[in-house]
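Message: I would value a second opinion on how I read folds in token form. Give me a protein, with the fold worked out from its sequence. Write it directly below this note and I will take it from there.
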Amino acid sequence: MSTPQDAISYAITDRTQYAETEPERHTALVAQAARLAAEGIDYIQLREKDLPAQDLIGLARGILSAIRESHSGTRLLINSRADIAVSAGAHGVHLPSGDDQLTPTQICSLFEAAGAAKPTVSVSCHTLDEVQRAQKSGAGLILFGPVFGKSIAGEIVVPETGLAALRVACEVAGKTPVLALGGITAANASACIKAGASGIAAIRIFR
């Protein structure tokens, strides 16, 4: 999917969408990354949090190889694991929301200590207070949502924050780019950009 008005595009992986065996899922995610990089996507977040470290590093290296072969500017971020990101040579880290997470400044210090290039650090935010903290702590990107929530069989399981809250989040974030997250589709992506988002982050529409 091409994002509206050349907005930032940020794909999040979910290997459970592919096959059933881990080798097949590994192959599918690397193939997905190769396709997305060739299409010019800006960021890929490797979000397979339940994988053992050795498997996660192998998968990250496979995706990085696919990105290099595409000769694109796509950047790979690893969810939560700064150690994996540094070991694999990824471009940065994504931090979930929560007070128990490292800060973007701490992530940058870890990369510097390892002799790695300055990382991109994205942060998930669900409230305006979290947006403000992420902005002040040096986040490179803020993923705000769930803008459109989530429902299963017509029942709301994750309430939406809404476009109005997204608009305010973008104002609070100042110069830090805010990406709309949660329930993003080809039909509603443009509305997110009109609300002030610099781009969109999603799983399914980039599959």
User: Anything to note?
Assistant: The domain at 4-199 is CATH 3.20.20.70 (TIM Barrel). The mean pLDDT is 93.
